[in-house]
Structure formats: structure tokens, C-alpha cells
Write a structure and sequence with these properties.
The complex is a heterodimer of chains A (327) and B (366).
Chain A: E1 2-5, H1 6-20, E2 24-28, H2 44-52, E3 53-55, H3 60-72, E4 76-83, H4 84-87, H5 91-98, H6 101-104, E5 114-118, H7 134-138, E6 144-147, H8 151-163, E7 168-172, E8 180-183, E9 197-200, E10 205-209, H9 212-226, E11 231-235, E12 238-240, H10 244-254, E13 257-260, H11 269-281, E14 290-292, H12 303-309, H13 313-323
Parallel strand pairs in A: 2-3, 2-4, 4-5, 5-7, 6-7, 10-11, 10-13, 13-14
Antiparallel strand pairs in A: 1-8, 6-12, 9-11
Helix pairs in contact in A: 1-8, 3-5, 9-13, 10-11
Chain B: H1 38-41, H2 45-70, H3 85-94, E1 100-104, H4 108-113, H5 118-125, E2 149-153, H6 160-173, E3 179-184, H7 191-202, E4 207-213, E5 216-217, E6 220-221, H8 222-225, E7 240-245, H9 249-266, E8 270-275, H10 293-300, H11 304-314, H12 320-343
Classes of the chains: A alpha/beta (327), B alpha/beta (366).
Bound molecules: thiamine diphosphate and magnesium ion.
Residues 184-186, 214, 216-217 of chain B line the site of magnesium ion.
Chain lengths: 327, 366
């Protein structure tokens, strides 16, 4: 195991895949000469040159579409968005084109492309810079969506994403790029897309949390342990395809579940998981599934409002208390 | 033709590597400033004093804001307008007070110019309820709609069509107002600009679109992110256009006066490339390795505030002591603003849900 920052784990994955396959290239705003807005791509320009590490203008729709066309025509692009908030401008290419071209041409087109970048809130950045988009993209057929919580997962899953022959959205967090974690040193370390992980074993309640929310759940679990509540945390890692069997298996043991999600509540990840659990594990539940999400309101700037807006360990503890009837 | 070597393939902008060694790279080439004196521009001595006070206020407000940021008084982004003050000031003095202005996230100067007080501005930076946007927007979203300042927006290029929409409504209502939309050089590469330019000319929208070309889009020099001169974007859409020296408040004023009259008279759009320079980093965490200290010095030597000060003195409009008086007054205003912001309350937690919908008691999904 090596201790790496999140950004280093992502960089290793990109670097290894670029070294392995000539057709892989990366493009995005400030990825080359500036070494990445968050230094994820640091050093890659020096190593691979202007052909494969490409600075783009601020033209999200244009360069994403160029990525889609290049993927159709045999290359394997990694398209970096400075954040997924700006990928909204490229949604036409991702949703109307990347996810559908193969299907509507009767399978004549393959689309090996990765769209990656920072997702969700990152401090006091206001309403337009704080949105979590993983659930939204997961809504659309033809897309795979990954939002990892730890450097190890990021490395293994990003390598899989780059090798995948479908459009994959790989989401990161501005606030986690500097976070350190143990990363496998196994050669060619791959984690299959669609496999979740039990990140903390416990017997009293299952908490499902991914991305940045995993860390919120972890803090809550540490607190709850002191109160004698034994939390099992499942990190699905991949939002879609979803590792439902792993979640169901855990609920069969704990009989209670809380889903933590950094998106808004309506038709989000938490809503979907709640539905699936009642369908697949209804007889095992001792309490209705609860969810902790953002409220149905835009991100405020003021620090105190932002703190109230974000899901907190306290919110998770309250939800756990509710499903365990401890309040 | 010789076949290109495989190694030569690159997707960097053309012209890279042609820079002359040792020469100071310039982010923007400034056109000559106007030769006209204030009287022939129609500006009174009082106008000039007010202009000086306004530019100095913008400068000191941001310098103090930066200090407060570094002290940890607030978080998020802080994009400073320092160096570009002649653009906002020249424009606001030239336009009618009810003409509609909209800009990007580098918006403090624009807000102050359009009547956001130092108190309201500083409090907004601090995320306090007394801020111009009640602490909901922060640095990027200053706004004062009652003064026809429609705010700062954070999605690059996103507000360009909106500026067209402000003009559409003005034409629809035949109210004699025009709109002026400001954005950075980075925004000229967005499809939103191109679609809007076409529609604006097609429909004869009374709108000024103005790029504040400050040489850089984050770490990318303008010549590395866009082809041709930016001003030439207008040609493709049959729009009138002009390059303006944005380091000289008289030049901005003159251009805006002329152009706004034409736009108002003929109900047609106009594109201005206003060349200027940003002295500070993009936001607060920018090591600025993409430019040299020498380059920055070149522009600081022609600082727009110093330039106006020199004019005031050389033309015996103000003496040193009078200028000092204005500066002291502004300094106090800004210090008071910091205190005001510091002492103001954060919004009440119940206000989280305010301002979402038009209804008194809207539906929220839980
Ligand atoms: C659609 C979109 N893409 C990317 C960003 C990130 N971003 C913020 S400012 C900026 C640079 C813009 O530069 P420019 O338009 O020249 O304005 P300046 O900062 O110089 O005022 C970038 C890339 C964004 N906010 N919105
Ligand atoms: Mg710029």
C-alpha cells in the first residue's frame, strides 16, 4: 500500500492508462500548461506532450462533443470538466449524444469516453457551483456513473472507466483532492465498475453513503459507536450500475437503513435506493428507510446557511436514531 | 508538401513557440487612448472628481476585502477587479442610470459603480444579511436591480444571452433603455455568445456586448484560447464593433457615449473589445506562473487611477490636498464598511428557504 492524495491516485490511473494505450488522451480547461486547476494532471503535459494532454477554451459543449466524435472514431478520450457544474453546458453531448448514438445506430457505434471532474459542493461557492449531478446522469440510460470516496477506489475505478467501452461519468470532489488514503500498489490495479464495498462492518443499522457523504457517515458512525450503536457503512462507489445485492445483504443482517446523499431529495439516489430496498428487502425491514439529503433549496453563500444546508453527521445520527427507535 | 512528423502533432494553439525570447509578453495590446480632454467629452470638473472617487473606492474596497479574506473573515472565491476600474467607471458615467447592466463574477467594481454601498458590498462578501444579496450570493453575485444592475454571474458566458434578454424587454416595452453586458475574454469561446450575437442582430436588440479582455482567462493567455482578434467575432454576425483602451477612463467614456447613442437610436447591437489588465491572480489561490512580474509592471505603470490623478493635477482641476481629502474619505468609508460587515448578523437560519419561489408559502419537497 502507498499513501496517496486523491489527486495523485487519479493522476496515477490516468498516467498508467495513457502509458498502456496510445489512444487515450485527456483534454479540458487548464489541464496542460497550468497542470490542472486542482493539479490532478500535474506533469502529464511534460510526459505526453501537446498531442495527448490538451488545453481547451472555455467551450464545454464544443470540446465534449469533440470528445464524443473522437470516441466514435476510435480514440479513448478523457474529458475533464473543471467542475460538473460546467458540464451542464455539455449536457446535450452527454445526454443526447454519448448515451444514445450506439443505440440509435443499431449498435454500429461504440463510445469509450470518460467525462470526469469535481462534483457537488466545495465550500462557499454559491448556488451555481455547488450541485451534485451523479443522480441526474444516472437517470439516463446508456451512462455509467461513479462517485468515489477514497483514493484507492478512485484509482481502481478510474482505470476501469478508461477501459470501459461505454460513456462513463467519473466524479470527484474539490474538497477531497488533498485527502490522503492507502492505495493498492498491485500492478494494474483494477476495481470492477458496479461493485460496492462494505467500508465498516456493523450489526445495528446499514448506512449507504458514497462520495463525500461517506466521510460524513463515517463521522456519524464513530459518534454512534460511543452510544452503543453499531453501524455498517456500505459505499456503493458506483452509482450506476448499482451494487444492490450488497446493500440488500447488509439489510438482511441489520434490518434498518439510512441513505445519505449529497443531492437534492426529489428523484435522487436516496429515493431510488429507498424504493429498491422496499421491493427487495421489505420483509427484513424493522423500520421505514430514512434518507439524509440536501434540502430542496439552492446552495446559499452565507457560512451559517451553508452549514445548515449540507448533510451533517448530526443529520445522519438523527436518522439512525429514527430507524432504531432511539428517540 | 513534406509529411508532418508524428511527433509534431499537437493540439496546442497555433503560434506557440514563436514568442521572442526575452521580450516582455503582453497580455493585451492597448489601442491609443483618446486625445480629447474632459470638456470636449462633455465631462465637468465635478464629473471628474466623482469618477476619481469612484475608481479609488473600487480599488480600496477590494484591497481591504482581500485583507479580510486573508484574515479568514469569509470564504469562497474572491475575484478582484483591480486594474480594470476604468471600464466600469467610464461605462456607468456614459450610460443613462436606467440602462441595464449585467456582468460576470468579477463584479464588485460594477456593483459599487451602480450604487451598491461599501457597507452592502462588504457585508455581502462576509455573507451577512445586510449584504446587497442578503448574504445569499457572496462575491460572485452582487446585484442591485433597483439601480438596473442585474448582477454578477458565475457560469462563464451564461449571462450573455440574458443581457440580450434585458434588451429584448426594453425594445418590447419601447422604454428607450438599452442593455450593456460585460464578460471576460474567456467567455468569447462559449456558444452562448455566438448564438446571442446572431439573434441580437437578427432582431435588432438595443444591446451593447462588451468583452473586458484582461489578457487572461484563469491561467490561459487570450492568444492561447481564442483564434483571431476577439473584436472580429462581430464581423461574422454583421455587428458593428470597436476596440477600446480600457486603462483610460476617458477612452471608455467616449466609446460608451458614442456607442450607446447609436445603439439606442438605431435599436441595434454593438460589440466592444475593451482591453484592460487584471493585476491580481484569477481568484485568491493563483500562483500566476503564466505571466512575468515584468509584464504586470508594464500595466501598473499605466494604472488608470494614477492616470486620472495626473490629469486632475496637470490640468489644475484638483490640488494634492483635495485629492488626499477624497482618498481619506474613501479610506474611512471602506474601513467603516469592514466594521459594518463584521458587526452585522448572519442571515437567520429560517431564511435558507426564502427567495426560492414567488409565493409567500411555496412548496418544498422533503
Ligand atoms: C462554464 C464555465 N466553465 C468554467 C468555469 C471556471 N472558470 C471560472 S472563471 C474562468 C476563467 C474566465 O476568464 P475570463 O472570461 O477571461 O474572465 P476574467 O476572470 O479574466 O474576468 C473559468 C475557466 C466557469 N465558471 N464556468
Ligand atoms: Mg480574462
Amino acid at each position: 500500500m502507498a499513501e496517496l492524495q486523491f489527486r495523485e491516485a487519479i493522476r496515477e490511473a490516468i498516467d498508467e492508462e495513457m502509458a498502456r494505450e496510445e489512444k487515450v488522451f485527456i483534454m479540458g480547461e487548464e489541464v496542460a500548461e497550468y497542470n490542472g486547476a486542482y493539479k490532478v494532471t500535474e506533469g502529464l503535459l511534460d510526459k505526453y506532450g501537446y498531442k495527448r494532454v490538451i488545453d481547451t477554451p472555455i467551450s464545454e459543449l464544443g470540446f465534449s462533443g469533440i470528445g464524443v466524435g473522437a470516441a466514435m472514431n476510435g480514440l479513448r478520450p478523457i474529458v475533464e470538466f473543471m467542475t460538473f457544474n460546467f458540464a451542464v453546458l455539455a449536457a446535450d453531448q452527454i445526454i443526447n449524444h454519448a448515451s444514445k448514438a450506439g443505440y440509435m445506430t443499431g449498435g454500429q457505434i461504440t463510445m469509450p469516453i470518460v467525462f470526469r471532474g469535481a462534483n457537488a459542493s466545495a465550500g462557499q461557492l454559491g448556488a451555481t457551483h455547488s450541485v451534485a449531478f451523479d443522480s441526474m446522469y444516472a437517470h439516463f440510460p446508456g451512462l455509467k456513473v461513479i462517485y468515489t470516496s477514497e483514493p484507492d477506489d478512485a484509482k481502481g475505478l478510474l482505470k476501469s472507466a478508461i477501459r470501459d467501452d461505454n460513456p462513463v461519468l467519473f466524479m470527484e470532489s474539490e474538497q477531497m483532492y488533498g485527502m490522503k488514503g492507502e492505495v493498492s500498489e498491485e500492478e494494474d490495479y483494477i476495481i470492477p465498475i458496479g461493485k460496492g464495498k462494505v467500508k465498516r462492518e456493523g450489526s445495528d443499522v446499514t448506512v449507504v453513503a458514497h462520495g463525500k457523504m461517506y466521510h460524513v457517515a463515517k463521522q456519524a458512525a464513530a459518534q454512534l459507536e460511543k452510544d452503543g450503536v453499531d453501524v455498517e457503512i456500505i459505499d456503493p462507489r458506483t452509482v450506476k450500475p448499482l451494487d444492490l445485492p450488497l446493500i440488500v445483504e447488509s439489510i438482511k443482517k441489520t434490518n434498518r437503513c439510512v441513505v445519505v446523499d449529497e443531492a437534492h431529495p426529489f428523484a435522487g439516489f436516496a429515493a431510488e435506493i429507498g424504493f429498491l430496498i422496499q421491493r427487495e428487502a421489505f420483509d427484513y425491514l424493522d423500520a421505514p428507510v430514512q434518507r439524509v439529503t440536501l434540502p430542496d433549496v439552492n446552495a446559499p453563500f452565507a457560512k451559517n446557511l451553508l452549514d445548515a444546508w449540507l448533510p451533517s453527521p448530526k443529520n445522519v445520527i438523527d436518522a439512525v436514531n429514527q430507524v432504531t427507535y432511539r428517540n | 508538401m513534406a509529411k508532418k512528423k508524428k511527433d509534431d502533432i499537437n493540439f496546442a494553439p497555433r503560434g506557440r513557440g514563436t514568442e521572442k525570447d526575452g521580450a516582455v509578453q503582453k497580455g493585451v495590446d492597448l489601442p491609443k487612448p483618446t486625445k480629447k480632454k474632459h470638456k470636449s467629452l462633455g465631462l465637468t470638473e465635478d464629473n471628474l472628481k466623482a469618477m476619481y472617487e469612484q475608481m479609488y473606492l473600487q480599488r480600496r474596497f477590494e484591497e481591504r476585502a482581500m485583507q479580510q479574506y486573508q484574515k479568514g473573515k469569509f470564504g469562497g472565491f474572491l475575484h478582484l477587479y483591480i486594474g480594470q476600474e476604468a471600464v466600469s467607471t467610464g461605462t456607468v458615467f456614459a450610460l443613462n442610470d436606467d440602462d441595464d447592466i449585467i456582468t460576470a463574477y468579477r463584479d464588485h467594481g460594477w456593483g459599487l459603480c451602480r450604487g451598491i454601498t461599501a457597507n452592502e458590498g462588504m457585508a455581502e462578501l462576509f455573507g451577512k444579511k445586510t449584504g446587497c444579496s442578503k448574504g445569499k450570493g457572496g462575491s460572485m453575485h452582487f446585484a442591485k436591480t433597483e439601480n438596473h444592475f442585474w448582477g454578477g454571474y458565475g457560469i462563464v458566458g451564461g449571462h450573455i444571452p440574458i443581457g440580450g434578454g434585458l434588451a429584448f424587454a426594453n425594445k418590447y416595452n419601447q422604454n428607450g433603455r438599452i442593455s450593456a453586458t460585460f464578460f471576460g475574454d474567456g467567455a468569447v469561446d462559449q456558444g452562448a455568445l455566438h448564438e446571442t450575437f446572431n439573434i441580437a442582430n437578427l432582431w435588432g436588440l438595443p444591446a451593447i456586448f462588451a468583452v473586458e479582455n484582461n489578457g487572461y482567462s484563469m491561467g490561459t493567455a487570450a492568444r492561447r484560447h481564442t483564434v483571431t482578434e476577439i473584436v472580429d467575432r462581430a464581423k461574422a454576425y454583421g455587428m458593428k464593433s470597436k476596440v477600446v483602451n480600457g486603462m483610460d477612463v476617458f477612452s471608455v467614456y467616449e466609446a460608451m457615449k458614442e456607442v450607446s447613442e447609436e445603439v439606442r437610436e438605431n435599436s441595434e447591437p454593438y460589440f466592444l473589445e475593451i482591453r484592460t489588465y487584471r493585476y491580481r491572480g484569477h481568484s485568491m489561490s493563483d500562483p500566476q506562473k503564466y505571466r512575468t512580474k515584468e509584464e504586470l509592471d508594464e500595466y501598473q505603470k499605466i494604472d488608470p487611477i494614477e492616470r486620472l490623478k495626473t490629469y486632475l493635477k496637470d490640468n489644475k482641476i484638483m490640488k494634492d490636498e483635495e485629492i488626499q481629502e477624497i482618498e481619506d474619505k474613501v479610506e474611512q468609508e471602506v474601513l467603516d464598511a469592514v466594521e459594518f460587515a463584521d458587526n452585522s448578523d448572519f442571515p437567520d437560519e429560517s431564511e435558507l428557504y426564502d427567495d426560492m419561489f414567488a409565493e409567500e408559502e411555496p412548496y418544498f419537497h422533503n
